[in-house]
Specification:
The protein is an all-alpha fold and 114 residues long. The chain has five helices and no strands.
Amino acid sequence: MGQLRVYPVMSESSRTAQSLRTLRPIASAWEWQFSAACKDLPSETFFHPDGERGPSRKNRIKNAKAICATCPVIKECLQHALNVQEPFGIWGGKSEEERAEMLSARKYVPELAS
């Protein structure tokens, strides 16, 4: 038999307060989005609709990446998408497939992103 482990008991209000401190949004982590070239564009520009294939998908990706290329916060956007492993859309000028390749090939280390 293993050793008995004793854990401190926290009240519901203590757990809630601790969770809120942990999950509190930090404005500086998101402020880059206010400067994004895409902020006023429809999400369909960057996220594919169900069943999109072939030339229409390639054109949408090409157009989205062209917008990203003009964006002053492209690095911050890509860093965010890689950090949270965003599975959908064009982020930081990279498609879902490109970001997945970066992550799986270990070409990306969050602490070293710039």
